[in-house]
Amino acid sequence: MLGYMGRRLVYVVVTLWAISIVTFVIINLPPGDYVSTVIANAQAGGQSLTPAEITNLRLRYGLDDPVFVQYWRWISAILLHGDFGQSFAWNQPVSTLIGERVLLSAILSISSLLMVWAIAFPIGIYSAVKQYSWGDYGFSFLGFIGMAVPEFMLALILMYIGFRYFGASVGGLFSPEFQDSAWNLGKVLDLLGHLWVPIVVIGVSGTAGMIRVTRANLLDELYRPYVHTARAKGLPEWKLLLKYPVRMSLSPFFSTVGWLLPGLIGGETIVSVVMSLPTGGPLLLSGVMNQDMYLVGSFVLILSVLTVIGTVVSDLALAWWDPRIRKRYKRE
Amino acid sequence: MSATIDTAIGGSGVAADDVLLEIEDLRTHFLLDDGVVCAVDGVDLRVRKGETLAIVGESGCGKSVMARSILRLVDPPGQIEGGKITLHRESGPVELVGADRKLLRQIRWNDIAMVFQEPMASLSLVHTIGSQIVEAVRLHENVGKAAARNRAIEMLDRVGIPMPQRRVDAYPFELSGGMRQRAMIAMALACRPSLLIADEPTTALDVTTQAQILELLRDLQDEFGMAIMLITHDLGVAAQVADSMAVMYLGRVVEYGGAEQVLAEPRHPYTKALLRSMPRLGRAARTRLTAIKGMVPPPYARPEGCAFHPRCDAVMAGRCDTVLPRRVPLREPVGDREVTCLLYEEES
To answer: Which residues cross the membrane (chain A) (predicted)?
Structure first.
């Protein structure tokens, strides 16, 4: 098991190194750089920059250095000092920018995830056990609607309803009066009052999808011989259901659970943009549009690290869950 | 028909003392979109205490569905449409078809246990063998974990699994097919059932292992005294272990009797044809095996009258294709014999 973990760790490091290079290449790929964006913005505003100013800017950001020098400057600062560089557009350290948004992103992701699980698992199990019943058809119908309706549209509808009929402040996670205040009970309550809308929006399609997956996975297991054995043993129906087929049907779930990790900081960009939520997604989007090199690079790198770690977490979770996998790791 | 024969076969529903399980006119149908499949269509059977009854027949003749119906384990869209299944427990007879779920759960495994065809698939792969046996024991007996675990080890030892103290914590995928089936048998017998239903227990195993498992079942029967209902399509297996034998064709029992008698003197044309299709040692060299003519008819198109008549050599035109044959008790040869065939109806 330790040997397996050690080998895994080596793969992780190699993978991340490769990702960091690819990331850096990609953010350098588009024609132009941050300075050309600044020039374009200035021109759009009816101003222009002198060639001296431009050279100055390019020099300041080191944009004329060879690519590998830029790469080394970027990656060594991250590894050695935890310094993700400066966001050109925000004029702030990238770590501060992302750090501010991690908490809210995480709260949003985790709470919508919990909602998805709490609703989707019981319904999925019900739908599988009562396949082709009216209940199953009903939930399938709702599920397909949930999957088919785009999130941004649902967000707009809910925001409209909230504004029109409940007088709620639209968008964001805080009412204007709490926007910049320090954390206190009022602010927390205000947050909760706003949070449910994005949770519902994000949760609906996730729930719908999860119901389908749970149902399909469970149907694969429901009529297996080991279920007959359990029934023949005299186990009560609901108990045998949870202990045997449901347990087996959760393996695919565990093998993907780690991929939720990157969603904690970067997920749900579209909904966040529509509802102007201060999560990571819109930050990344604006960075990409501004060619804010270090911001985007760091973002992509962090997301990749989380994805790779998430994969390891998934594998470990699956090993914990399924003895067949566990034994194979041990043998390796 | 003489009165003595009537009691001997228990045909009137009066059970002889030694009858353990009595199935009367059992019908299990599958309501599918394309029509109704009568997988079990009026089965009458008895299992005596401590005997081995082999149920033989081709694939699709309804043997497995019949066996599963006993414990009401038929998955939808299968449904028991009618009939009576009476289990004679020490405390008195119980009817299973109409029994409430609670009583049924008590009877499952405690009175009637099952062993299935695929030892790999019928044990949960993510639970240890020990925990699966312990679960069965603790469901039916008020014993602690440690005692149940000891029982599991003892049973694993009894079915010939080496190092049972270690194997009790093994997962099924860590054992070979034969060992898995032994573990399954250990689990089936852990609650000392009075009837063990073995549904093709050796089909998925190689011939050597098959012989070992059959021998094990016979030994365990001597020791535990349970009756065995052995479902098999393999007449050789049936001949090896069975005391009685029932031959099924398309959801009905066509012939029933002592195993030796049925094999030595088959009466039903189907049984005769089945035996002719078997290779046999000592038969004159180079004689061809005779296949039963025709095919098992498709499930939705069950022939009128006797279901076997389109394939039967002794078919009586105008009768077999219209009249549904009854069970006919035979006076000869000795003992408990029954044939469901019009050829014998006049005789009695």
So the answer is: 9-27, 102-129, 141-163, 195-214, 253-275, 295-321
CB contact under 8 A, B125 and A228: no
Report the candidate in B241, B242, B235 with the shortest Cα–Cα distance to residue B213. B241
B136 and B55 within one domain: no
CATH number at residue B218: 3.40.50.300
Q: Where are the alpha helices (DSSP H) in A223-331?
A: 225-232, 237-241, 247-249, 251-254, 260-266, 269-274, 280-290, 293-321, 323-331
Average pLDDT over residues B226-235: 91
Residue B320 belongs to a domain: no
* Domain that residue B148 falls in: 119-192
The residue type at A144? F
Per residue in B4-13, is it b (16+ CB within 10 Å) or e — as a string?
Answer: ebeeebbbee
Q: What is the pLDDT of residues B115-160, one digit of tens each?
A: 988 878 899 988 999 999 999 999 998 888 999 999 999 999 999 8
Instruction: Please report the ipTM that was assigned to this predicted complex.
Output: 0.84
pLDDT grade for B11, boundaries at 50, 70 and 90 = very low
Which chain B residue lies closest to A227 (C-alpha atoms)?
B122
- Determine the pLDDT at residue A285: 87
CA distances (Å), origin A310, targets A318, B33, B76, B256: 12, 45, 40, 63
What is the block-wise mean pLDDT of chain A (332 residues), using blocks of 10 residues?
Answer: 80 89 79 74 77 79 78 83 79 84 83 88 92 92 88 86 75 73 78 81 86 91 90 90 90 80 75 82 85 81 87 87 84 69
Would you call A225 and B117 a contact, using CB atoms and an 8 Å cutoff?
A: yes
When mean pLDDT is compared across A307-311, B58-62, B290-294, the lowest value belongs to: B290-294
Alpha helices in B108-256 (DSSP H): 119-122, 129-140, 145-158, 164-167, 177-189, 207-224, 235-241
- Mark whether B65 and B159 lie in a shared domain: no
Which of the listed residues B280, B296, B322 is the one where a domain comes to its end?
Answer: B280
Let me know whether B181 and B210 are in one domain.
no
Domains in chain A and their CATH numbers?
101-291 (1.10.3720.10)
In this predicted structure, what is the pLDDT of residue A245? 92
Contacts of A229 in chain B (CB under 8 A): 114, 116, 122-124, 184
Q: How many folded domains does chain B comprise?
A: 2
Say if B309 falls within a structural domain.
no
Q: Does residue B50 lie in a domain region?
A: yes
Q: Does B116 touch chain A (CB under 8 A)?
A: yes
* Residue that terminates a domain, selected from B220, B254, B280: B280
